[in-house]
């Protein structure tokens, strides 16, 4: 790719970017959110048209105008946000990707060579929108790998995978490299990049600021190249002691549509000035617990209380002005109105500012611009549509909306998933600041590093049941890992 330029409204996503990938190479692409990585790859995959630039693949010039053109040329892409059709079955989604005939048997036969290495472990008749994010992304990974591609683009492929699934994916990447195929690997996890990549290209501000041999770099050097400066660590302890219980889940059960309960007699109390981390492999009850605390689902039995009072019924939170910030896992579908400008999205928070009976447009825009600048959203233009921001900047908008009003409690689900190092630290610092102001914070995360970095107490979800919480000093990663696998090591 040579001299690639792409401009959106108020944003230059790619500014004269060039990239060279060799045959049989795993080439990592690093950069902060909004650095232009996904836009560059969307251009290569035919999803976005460049304003200028040339693409050559296997010695000939190509001009992919659609993903079909890219696949025909031998280029495939697995997206950070799975491009699947929710109301359709897994088998039908595979058929849309050119695999099988839409039936379970046809799909099973089409993906058999891949699933020997990367088991799909999904009911092929299941509706995709009933599956957790990890399984949705695995469908796209299998769908892409089952095609005869010679260059595979992986955009944050491990963000929603378990450690075991990551290992399986890396085995497949090694197989692809060994067969002479090339892989472009986009990730914010520097340990993964150092392990799997041959070379690393760093984008910053829409420009290529350097390509390096991975073996000659350290994680610290790569982090500094990404952000233009060294990064530090968040500091968990502020010396304060938790206060009274604010957010309480009392013996809550949510009955599943089929099979065992999705959540079974879950009991938990989060105190003022405390972060409780909920660890667990995805699919063990995190989603129903979050939906219960977001006011989106009713408990079959049990009660959710705030300050000793039962929370209002499903659908009544906004009208009741419940002072609980909600940071959902899926910012695109559950966190933002993508077709609305940023100022409107900011106004949907739990505690928006008051502007009187009539909204004064100038006052609202000034407030929104100040908020966006405070939280590092780029661009900080309140009239920009949420859909036009990078994933990381979309997440910053969610954080600004939910935490900007100093909420009394926070429920955050994988709040830093898919974010670069600097953005991860900014979000984590915001959660710590909320705790420091006296908020009761419940952090539900599949990232153990994040759980141990932020939590005062740690609980584990497995099979819809909760164990703990334990004081952070009383549980180590080995014990947490055993509990996450359903084994209590004592």
Structure description:
With 490 residues, this protein is of the alpha/beta class. The protein has helices at 37-44, 67-73, 90-96, 104-115, 133-145, 163-178, 190-196, 219-227, 286-293, 317-320, 331-335, 342-346, 361-374, 391-403, 421-436, 448-454, 477-484; strands at 2-8, 11-17, 26-31, 52-57, 60-62, 75-78, 151-155, 182-186, 199-204, 207-213, 245-254, 263-271, 274-279, 301-306, 309-310, 324-327, 409-413, 440-444, 457-462, 465-471. It is built from 17 helices and 20 strands. A 6-stranded mixed β-sheet has the order 6-7-8-3-9-10, sandwiched between helices. A 6-stranded mixed β-sheet has the order 16-17-18-13-19-20, sandwiched between helices. A hairpin with a 2-residue loop joins β14 and β15. α3 packs across α4 (104-115).
Jot down its keywords.
single chain; 490 residues; alpha/beta; Rossmann fold; 2 domains; 6-stranded mixed beta sheet; 17 helices; 20 strands
Spatial strand order of the main sheet: 6-7-8-3-9-10
Q: Provide the residue-averaged pLDDT.
A: 85
Indicate the CATH architecture of the largest domain.
3-Layer(aba) Sandwich
> Which fold name fills CATH's third level, the topology of the largest domain?
Rossmann fold
> How many angstroms separate the termini?
55 Å
Structural class: alpha/beta
- How would you describe the shape? globular
The gyration radius over C-alpha positions equals 23 Å
Total individual domains: 2
The level of helicity is 25-40%
- Poorly predicted spans: none
CATH superfamily of the largest domain: P-loop containing nucleotide triphosphate hydrolases
User: How many helical elements?
Assistant: 17
Q: Would you state the CATH class of the largest domain?
A: Alpha Beta
């Amino acid at each position: 790719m040579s001299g690639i330029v792409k401009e959106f409204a108020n944003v230059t996503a790619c500014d004269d970017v060039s990239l060279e990938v060799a045959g049989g190479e795993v080439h990592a692409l690093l950069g902060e959110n909004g650095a232009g990585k996904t836009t560059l790859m969307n251009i290569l995959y035919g999803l976005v048209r460049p304003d200028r630039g040339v693409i050559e693949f296997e010695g000939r010039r190509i001009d992919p105008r659609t993903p079909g053109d890219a696949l025909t040329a031998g280029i495939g892409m697995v997206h950070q946000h799975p491009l699947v059709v929710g109301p359709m079955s897994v088998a039908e989604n595979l058929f849309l990707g050119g695999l099988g005939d839409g039936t379970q048997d046809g799909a099973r036969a089409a993906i058999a060579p891949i699933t020997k290495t990367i088991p799909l472990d999904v009911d092929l008749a299941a509706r995709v929108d009933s599956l957790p994010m990890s399984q949705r992304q695995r469908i796209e990974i299998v769908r892409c790998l089952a095609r005869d591609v010679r260059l595979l683009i992986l955009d944050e492929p491990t963000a929603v995978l378990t450690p075991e699934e990551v290992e399986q994916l890396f085995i497949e990447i090694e197989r692809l490299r060994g067969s002479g195929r090339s892989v472009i690997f986009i990730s914010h996890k520097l340990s993964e990049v150092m392990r799997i990549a041959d070379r690393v290209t760093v984008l910053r501000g829409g420009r290529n600021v350097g390509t390096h041999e991975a073996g000659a770099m350290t994680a610290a050097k790569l982090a500094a190249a990404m952000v233009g400066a060294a990064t530090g660590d968040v500091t968990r302890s502020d010396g304060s002691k938790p206060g009274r219980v604010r957010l309480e889940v009392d013996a809550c059960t949510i009955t599943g549509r089929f099979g065992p309960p999705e959540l079974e007699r879950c009991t938990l109390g989060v105190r003022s000035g405390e972060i409780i981390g909920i660890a667990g492999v995805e699919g063990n009850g995190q989603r129903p617990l979050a939906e219960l605390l977001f006011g989106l689902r009713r408990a079959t039995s049990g009660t959710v209380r705030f300050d000793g009072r039962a929370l209002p019924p499903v659908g009544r939170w906004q009208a009741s002005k419940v002072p609980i910030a909600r940071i959902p896992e899926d910012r695109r579908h559950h966190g933002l109105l993508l077709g609305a400008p940023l100022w409107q999205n900011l106004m949907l928070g739990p505690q928006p500012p008051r502007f009187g009976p009539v909204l004064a447009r100038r006052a609202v825009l000034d407030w929104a611009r100040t908020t966006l600048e405070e939280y590092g959203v780029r661009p900080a233009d309140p009239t920009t549509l949420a859909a036009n921001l990078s994933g990381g900047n979309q997440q910053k908008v969610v954080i600004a909306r939910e935490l900007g009003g100093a909420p009394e409690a926070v429920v955050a689900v994988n709040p830093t998933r898919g974010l670069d190092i600097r953005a991860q630290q900014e979000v984590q610092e915001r959660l710590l600041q909320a705790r420091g102001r006296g908020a009761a914070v419940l952090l539900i995360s599949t990232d153990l590093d994040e759980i141990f970095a932020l939590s005062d107490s740690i609980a584990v979800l497995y099979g819809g049941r909760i164990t703990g919480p334990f004081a952070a000093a009383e549980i180590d990663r080995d014990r947490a890992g055993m509990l996450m696998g359903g084994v209590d090591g004592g």
